[in-house]
Amino acid sequence: xxxxxxxxxxxxxxxxxxxxxxxxxxxxxxxxxxxxxxxxxxxxxxxxxxxxxxxxxxxxxxxxxxxxxxxxxxxxxxxxxxxxxxxxxxxxxxxxxxxxxxxxxxxxxxxxxxxxxxxxxxxxxxxxxxxxxxxxxxxxxxxxxxxxxxxxxxxxxxxxxxxxxxxxxxxxxxxxxxxxxxxxxxxxxxxxxxxxxxxxxxxxxxxxxxxxxxxxxxxxxxxxxxxxxxxxxxxxxxxxxxxxxxxxxxxxxxxxxxxxxxxxxxxxxxxxxxxxxxxxxxxxxxxxxxxxxxxxxxxxxxxxxxxxxxxxxxxxxxxxxxxxxxxxxxxxxxxxxxxxxxxxxxxxxxxxxxxxxxxxxxxxxxxxxxxxxxxxxxxxxxxxxxxxxxx
Length: 391
Ligand code: UD1
Description:
The chain has helices spanning 22-37, 55-64, 81-99, 111-123, 142-153, 163-170, 184-192, 199-205, 227-230, 233-249, 258-266, 286-294, 304-313, 328-331, 342-353, 370-390; strands at residues 15-19, 44-48, 72-73, 103-107, 127-130, 156-159, 178-180, 220-223, 252-255, 278-281, 298-301, 317-319, 335-337. It has 391 residues and is α/β, with parallel strands linked by helices. The strands form 2 sheets. Strands 3-2-1-4-5-6-7 form a 7-stranded parallel sheet, sandwiched between helices. α1 crosses α7. The structure holds uridine-diphosphate-N-acetylglucosamine. Residues 21-23, 51-54, 57-58, 78, 109-111, 142-143, 225, 257-259 line the site of uridine-diphosphate-N-acetylglucosamine.
């Protein structure tokens, strides 16, 4: 078959693009746009597993990121890790049978990522993993298991930083399967920066007092959701107590994950956050969060994505974890690991407030064009594979 610039072979199925949870959405939006703009355009089918489902965790982000409505929603919802993973697998298998995709593209490290990759492996459908090769080397993190196993299964692996290749080759992944493209999450950040919502408006709409963040020191943004930080009452109590202390010097805006909110209620720790200098908000939309981050004095968080976003924005970030799978944010960016140790957290905040925070630089290929590179590489890869099969 002769291929022209505009032609995608009619017998080559769509790329099934999988999202499941909040951190997947900002990665998928630029990929879908780049696949549509590429010539020939890559046909896609957007599948949502339904791992995150409520308005705050899902609907607002879809709207902010201008993501199309999913073509298929598996509606799995919340459950234990085993049940959630198993439900995605059960419901995903018939989709592969009916859609006969050219490949399945998964992003990041959530349970939906691994579940869909596993189903593909058993059905001989190629798996493409975006954000491959990141390693915290901490197997107690559910996401680490998801990363390692997804990369073992994947046929084409796209990386965000060069250190990922060393991790993959150490695990026996052939180098020719790996392609360094940069960071699609930063594609989203750069594409949306001009639409970010002003922090005062965000606070006003959420019923908070916008005057709180007018402090001469500025304000800090807080998020917390990792089971290791929020599932035990003693750890969570110590963290909330140090946040309360930090807020004496720097007002805090805390965008609270549902897991954290539920645990604070369950352990009766709400009193620790009752301060006029701490504004607690529900999970925020993408444009609200972007606005809050861009003007913040610092970020205090255990999120993977915020480490990268704060580096891209040049805002100092104190990561409340013992390790990170994103070492470039420490080596080149604005990130510092402080663990859950109250003293280290206080010291980190004091340093930043005294002007000694990291300013960092933008890592290679975090330039807004990562999704374009994926589209070009994947298109060539799929067409070459197809030509080999039919020829
Ligand atoms: C998941 C991802 C994690 C990611 C995080 C971002 C895995 C293993 N973890 O963790 O990598 O950083 O998302 O948010 O996949 N809930 C709601 N509404 C929702 C979704 C969840 O209230 O829309 C509640 C559920 O009741 C559940 C809790 O939040 O108890 C946790 O949700 P879950 O999907 O299990 O994982 P996350 O902790 O969000």
